[in-house]
Amino acid sequence: MWMAVPSTDAATPAAATPAPAILVVGDSISAGYGLAADEGWVALLQRRLKSQGYGYRVVNASVSGETTTGGLARLPRALSVHRPAIVIIELGGNDGLRGLPLETSRANLERMINLSKGAGARVLLLGMKIPPNYGARYSEGFEKVFRDLARQHKLAFEPFFLSKIALEQGMIQEDGLHPTAKAQPVMLDTMWPALKPLLTR
After folding, report:
1. Is pLDDT above 70 for 1?
2. Catalytic annotation present for 28
3. Residue 128, SS3 per DSSP
4. Residue 92's closest CA among 71, 77, 78?
5. Within 10 A of 180 (CB to CB), how many other CB atoms are there?
6. Which of 52, 60, 156, 198 is the most exposed place for a label (fewest CB within 10 A)?
7. Active site residue 82
8. In Å, what is the CA distance from 122 to each residue of 67, 79, 125, 139, 184?
């Protein structure tokens, strides 16, 4: 939520102007599954931006269980409502865990990238890795989808922002999938170098 700053000129009241938005479109990793509302990396991002003097409002449009198909379906309205300056896409993990066709995931992500750029937003793509349940060919192809899209569209890119917590004790919840509260600052630190060049003061 943003708050309008009242005009100091009573004769010519200014229209309320919201801070530029960073829209996060993700799944349970960004929705903060199993965490308090203020513990997830997205909430921590808002606090870091404020503490470092960046005037952005972070809009978390992440939904637990979301696939790239669901994210694509929701994105046009989110772009229209929030008019973000930056879109962070953190989707694909559930596609991979369900063994969905890589071609479908790639097409959905590419469409999201193009819609975001077409709306005037800069895009940060957060890559993901999956366990080798469906074989090495699928797992490697899954990772390649993100790398190829980032290169093709010249995107800000973090290949795997769970890289520093995935195998660390105390960083994953008992379900074996979702990061703990302890992991969230590490995740933010991992993706921050990719996001920072997109920010303006």
Report:
1. no
2. yes
3. coil
4. 71
5. 16
6. 52
7. no
8. 21, 12, 10, 28, 23
Q: Which of 9, 51, 80, 175 is catalytic?
A: 175
Whole-number pLDDT of residue 60: 98
Predicted pLDDT of residue 15: 57
Structure tokens at 76: 């046009």
Each residue of 78-101: pLDDT tens digit? 999 999 999 999 999 999 999 999
Which member of 64, 153, 178, 189 is catalytic?
Answer: 178
Residue 103 clears pLDDT 90, i.e. is over it: yes
Element holding 26 (H helix, E strand): strand 21-26
Q: Residue 59's closest CA among 29, 24, 87?
A: 24
CA distance 88 to 82: 13
Residue 74, exposed/middle/buried by CB under 10 A (0-12, 13-18, 19+)? Answer: middle
Residue type, 182: K
- At 201, the pLDDT band (50, 70, 90 cuts) reads confident
List the Cα angle 162/166/171 in 5-degree steps. Answer: 100
Taking every pair of C-alpha atoms in the chain, what is the biggest distance, in angstroms?
68
Residue 24 neighbours by CB distance under 10 Å: 25
Q: Which residue among 27, 28, 62, 95 is the active-site one?
A: 28
pLDDT at 16: 67
For residues 149 and 105, is the Cβ–Cβ distance under 8 A? no
Annotated active-site residue 178? The verdict is: yes
